[in-house]
Amino acid sequence: MTIKEVMAESIITIHKEQNIIDALKLMKKYKISRLPAISTKENKDELVGILTEKDMATKIASSKYENLPISHFRISTLMTPDIITADVNDAKIKVLKKMVDNKIGGIPIMDDNKIVGIVTKTDFMKKCTIEPYTTTPISEIMTPKVLTIESEDRFVHARRIMIDNEVSRLIIVDTGKIEGIISARDMAKAVIEFKKRVPEKYQESQIRNMYIKDVMSKNVESVTSDMTIADVAKIMVDNEFSGMPIVDDGKMKGIVTKTDILKFITDVMNRRENIEL
Questions:
Q1: pLDDT, average across residues 208-227
Q2: CA distances from 146 to 142, 159, 244, 250, 252 (A)
Q3: What is the pTM of this model?
Q4: What is the DSSP string of 32-89?
């Protein structure tokens, strides 16, 4: 079975000369976290990069770009130009392994150098409706060690932790209680709003006075360790969550992400060839 059966054929793209505000509007409107970037040559669109929420969060607040006005953030500045793609005739397991091995959340699907679709972690997770996904508890694939910060920590500190540990979210814990979560999307939005309202000459000093409590998402939903992978995958897909804390009797036991679920799907498909998504 080829990736064509899983991929989304409706592709939302962005031109490399558009700006970051355009990108955020498209991501919000279509509820997506990545955009293929294109360039037009001789009246033909060519895939030249991909832009993710993580790209925006890590780059727009970096020292390299901290003095750049928000209106100057072109997609070409923020996108990843080294694109990992797959062919429309590739097997699903081949594409899935490519995503897991390269730690990416989505892959443009090509047919004769033309982008014809895109596949994301969510597309695979939607198919977790059969055994063993319906019988395996989430505790078997969760990550027990959870990176946490406190609400009084500074924004730049959280960003540094995300970059150093290659994660896209952090759980906020105060006095042992989960108070919120901050994601790459939250960070990108926070920096853009900051750059809009703070005069350019004050940005370098004032961004260091931003606190997690001012930008985190509150009312965090959690799941219990005995819930099945299928149940958790559905909650994550339905609510557009990329990660969820695992909490038993008020105590945090771990965290599960889309990547954790994709790794399990890959293992299952490698072990049992008769298991199809």
A1: 93
A2: 10, 16, 11, 15, 9
A3: 0.88
A4: -SEEEEEEEETTEEEEEEEEEHHHHHHHTTSTTTTTS-GGG-BHHHHSB-S---EETT
